[in-house]
Amino acid sequence: MDGAVSGFPLDRHLANLADDGLTIVEDFLDRDTLAEARAGIVPLMGAHKGRTDFEGYLTERVYTLVARGKVFERIAEDPRMLALADRVLVRKYLLSVTQAINIHPGENAQGFHRDGGYYLLPPTFRPVCIGMIAALDDFTAENGATEMLPGSHKWSETELQTFAVARNDRTLQRDYATKLKTIEMPAGAAVIFVGTLFHQGGANKSNAPRLALTNQYCEAWLRTQEAFHLSIPLERARAMSARLQQLLGYDTFGDSMGNLTGMNPARALAPDFVAPILAEERAPRSH
């Protein structure tokens, strides 16, 4: 697969990712997909407030979005997103997290972080994950638009150390403020960014919530943020496309990483599947 998608300027977006660590796809969700996604998320609101400063106490999150409607399945395997991931990540990467994020009025800025910061790798290691944030409401400077530091994915260890100090130094904070990019974009647009880029959810100073959805992908030798094998019932996974099944981990990386007692985990999608150990226990024993 060469990653080409008709009408999609792949090379331009790849150049943006290389230079800035981010790129914006203005027409990521068409009008119908946008409406369908909103209709699928809005009824789920009201039960998932954040539990930490990072999640946001005034921010609602709905996890495992990929299992909550066909529209979210389609978005998770959007060919433009995967074309970019094909070129940034080692193949057979996985869907790591898929969630809706609704930032309510009065929420504070989240705090700058890298999505790849979960992984215990050298800070200057290449990107091993890539993310997408799609606006379901217009993103503005007032309502909590995502804030990013372009170029921070290429910082040296010295630059990273200076940034760490800046978090407690107001003079340095002002210097970084001049480099900040607020991702103002209309509903339906999406920002795609590498996992080594510093970013944060902005403070919502408006009178209305700001709704978005995000999908993140990681290389298959890493642990995903969400345990989809446990959160998505097998009968639902069986009805998904083969590509999405692979993204959820129903495949091995290399010859055996992620195997199911020595077999490809795709075997679990067979209608008559019985967990191997249970099958052994049920088998008649000779005496």
What do you see in this structure?
This protein is α+β, with helices and mostly antiparallel strands and 287 residues long. It folds into 2 domains: 10-251, q2cbj1_9rhob like domain (Jelly Rolls, Sandwich); 258-287, no CATH class. Helix content is 28%, strand content 16%. The chain contains 10 helices and 9 strands. The chain has helices spanning 10-20, 31-41, 70-76, 79-88, 157-166, 170-177, 228-231, 234-238, 242-247, 276-282; strands at 22-25, 59-62, 94-103, 129-135, 147-148, 181-182, 190-194, 199-200, 210-218. The strands form 2 sheets. A 6-stranded antiparallel sheet has the order 1-7-4-9-3-2. A 3-stranded antiparallel sheet has the order 6-5-8, with no helix packed on it. The model has no long low-confidence stretch (mean pLDDT 92).
CATH topology heading of the largest domain: Jelly Rolls
Characterize the biggest β-sheet: 6 strands, antiparallel
| Proportion of strand residues | 15-25%
Low-confidence stretches: none
- Mean pLDDT rating: 92
**Assembly state of the chains shown:** single chain
Shape: globular
The largest beta-sheet arranges its strands as 1-7-4-9-3-2
Helix/strand layout:
Layout: H1 10-20, E1 22-25, H2 31-41, E2 59-62, H3 70-76, H4 79-88, E3 94-103, E4 129-135, E5 147-148, H5 157-166, H6 170-177, E6 181-182, E7 190-194, E8 199-200, E9 210-218, H7 228-231, H8 234-238, H9 242-247, H10 276-282
Antiparallel strand pairs: 1-7, 2-3, 3-9, 4-7, 4-9, 5-6, 5-8
